[in-house]
C-alpha cells in the first residue's frame, strides 16, 4: 500500500441499508478526514480525526459516523442510507492535526443510494 | 458567512497562459491552498500561501493578497494534461478549511 486507499471504488445501495466506507493510510499521518463532493459544490467535511482515538464533526455530519481505533484506519458508516447521500466520498490525511497542513486524498468512493 | 468565489469554468489554448482567480471572505486567515483535481480522480496539492506575494513552482505560480482577500493561480505553457479542476481552499481563524467549488479548466489545442 502506498498513500491512502479507499474501498469500495463504487457502490449502489438501497435506501435504508447500512454501509461502511473504508479508508486506510500507510503514511503514519496523525489526522484523517472524510469529505463528500457534489457537483457544483466545494468539498464538504463530514468528520475528522486529529489523532487516533479522537474524532470531530465537520460541516455535514448528520447521518454519518466514524471511528478511529488506530492510526491507519478511519471508516465512515452510513447507518441508514438516504438518496441525498449519493455523492463521491473522499478520505484524506495530513501529518499534523490541523487544517493548515497539506492533505493527501484517497481515490474516492462513488456511492449511489436508490 | 464564509465564502470562496472562483469562476466555474475557463477555457484556454495549449501553450498559452491562464490565470485562475479566487476571492474569499472568511473569519480570519491562516493560509490558502490550491489543489488540482483531474476528472474522476482525487485532489492533489499544488501550493500553499500564507504571506503576500508570488510563489513560483515550475510552470505554476500562486499569488496572495491578504488585504484584498484575493489569490490567483497562474499556469504557463499550458499542456493538455492541465485540463482539470482547480480548487481554492482557505484556512480560517479557527483553523478550519473552507473549500471553493473549483474552476474547471478546459485546454484546447
What's the structural blueprint in terms of helices and strands?
The complex is a heterodimer of chains A (114) and B (109).
Chain A: E1 4-7, E2 10-13, E3 19-25, E4 31-37, E5 44-49, E6 56-57, E7 64-66, E8 76-78, E9 87-94, E10 104-105, E11 109-113
Parallel strand pairs in A: 2-11
Antiparallel strand pairs in A: 1-3, 3-8, 4-5, 4-9, 5-6, 7-8, 9-10, 9-11
Chain B: E1 3-5, E2 9-13, E3 18-25, E4 32-37, E5 44-49, E6 53-57, E7 60-65, E8 70-75, E9 84-91, E10 97-99, E11 103-108
Parallel strand pairs in B: 2-11
Antiparallel strand pairs in B: 1-3, 3-8, 4-5, 4-9, 6-7, 7-8, 9-10, 9-11
How would you portray this structure in words?
The complex is a heterodimer of chains A (114) and B (109). Chain A is mainly β and 114 residues long. Helices cover 0% and strands 45% of the residues of chain A. The mean pLDDT of chain A is 95. In chain A, strands 2, 4, 5, 6, 9, 10 and 11 form a 7-stranded mixed sheet that branches. Chain B is mainly beta. Chain B has no helices and 11 strands. In chain B, a hairpin with a 6-residue loop joins strand 4 (32-37) and strand 5 (44-49). In chain B, the strands form 2 sheets. In chain B, strands 2, 4, 5, 9, 10 and 11 form a 6-stranded mixed sheet that branches. Chain B has a 5-stranded antiparallel sheet with strand order 1-3-8-7-6, with no helix packed on it. The mean pLDDT of chain B is 96. Chains A and B meet through strand 10 of A and strand 5, strand 9 and strand 10 of B.
